[in-house]
Amino acid sequence: MRYSTLLITLVLCHQLIGQDTEPTMSFEEYDPASTLVVPENPVKRAKFPFVDVHSHQWNLTKERIASLVGEMNELNMRAMVNLSGRGFDRAAGDIGSQEYLAGMVRRVEGEAPDRIVMFTNVSFKNIGQDGWAKEAVRQLREDVKNGATGLKIYKSLGFSTKDSEGNRVAVDDPRIDPIWEACGKLGIPVIIHSADPAQFWLPMDANNERWLELKLRPRRKRSADNPAPFEQIIAEQHNIFKKHPKTTFINAHMGWMANNLDKAGEHLDTYPNVNFGIGAVIAEFGRQPRRAKAFFEKYQDRILFAKDAYNKEEFYTYFRVLESEDEYFPYYKKYHAFWRMYGLGLSDEVLRKVYYKNACRIIPALDLEMFEAADD
Question: What distance in Å separates the CA atoms of residue 289 and residue 341, rounded to the nearest whole number?
């Protein structure tokens, strides 16, 4: 009995010692360098001049404009679309004033003409009150007179925006119809971001590709009542595309369909007034290069280069995915893509359309001849 007890004790001690000495690490820490030997062709400057149709610049001082233009020149970014034209008034908890937009337009025109294009924004703060739509349309028209050349709709519409009675305002709320109609009559595009990736609504478990992102950014987790199901918000967005065929829309982030290109193609086939911005979804193309290349070739007239959060070095991955035929290279944010990228090797014809020709067709302030001159 004593011998058996001693033996069991020794075995348990051995197991415990083994557990203590085994190396452990978290998923976040595991990031091995690839031993794969393949050609590497990093791209730090776009092959052709391009427009970034999705950027947010909140405080364009004279010094910031100069710094920004310097980096744009390095990247071969001929023009940038600033979607935050009105800025944000923290004291009011709402978008900024018409004076803010007009002042920023004047500053940009003085310091860097033709390099930064301004979109305006709409305040939904008083929606539900008498006269809201009429006043919103009036302000929109005034903003266009002051230099705005498009409208940006933030994802707060459909998420956190509430009317004067405290109810969630749906993306397709009929009270907003005059805004979409006015954009069509003014000939300006609407770039709209609705919902978030569908995985944010799924259980946060080992089967969720966005698990790490949700762990690091827990406020991004959604549910059917926070504030509504993913499918409902997306359906609301599609309703306005259908209801306003004479208005040109840019569906930001490809409407979260870059991981399902069959569905994305059906979307463009269904709504000829809709175009895709590729901001924040380049990692989806980089893991399916053959299908993504075929998609870009088929819908080459409907896709616009977009980045979203501005960081000069992050553009390099976009260029490499679109232009090169490199294999198995890293993305710049592990929590967005823990997989590796592959280049699509797009043709010059397709690249030119994605980089600037499509944007010049859609956004009035962009001069195609200026881009073609820079392309020579």
Answer: 8
d(CA 281, CA 50): 18
- Six token digits for residue 249: 């829309």
Residue 180 DSSP code: H
- Write out the two tokens for 324: 């090169």
**Kind of pairing, strands 94-95 and 88-89?**
antiparallel
Under 8 Å between Cβ of 203 and 222: no
Percentage of residues in the chain having pLDDT higher than 70: 94
The structure tokens listed for 55 are 């950027």
By three-state DSSP, how is residue 278 classified?
A: coil
- The mean pLDDT of 292-304, rounded to a whole number, is 98
pLDDT in tens, 126-170: 999 999 999 999 999 999 999 999 999 999 999 999 999 999 999
CB 251 within 8 A of CB 279: no
Of the candidates 296, 304, 302, the one whose C-alpha atom is nearest the C-alpha of residue 277 is: 304
Can you tell me the distance from the alpha carbon of 343 to that of 328, in angstroms, rounded to the nearest whole number? 9
Report, as an integer, the average pLDDT of 73-96: 93
DSSP SS3 for 80: strand
Residues 6 or more apart from 53 whose CB is under 8 A from it?
81, 191, 250, 277, 279, 304, 305, 306, 359, 363
- Tally of CB atoms within 10 A around 121: 23
Residue range 6-29: mean pLDDT, rounded: 60
Contact by Cβ (8 Å): 342, 326: yes
Cβ neighbours around 368 below 10 Å, total:
12
Complete domains list, the chain, with CATH: 39-375 (3.20.20.140)
d(CA 346, CA 355): 11
Specify the 3-state DSSP secondary structure of 95. Answer: strand
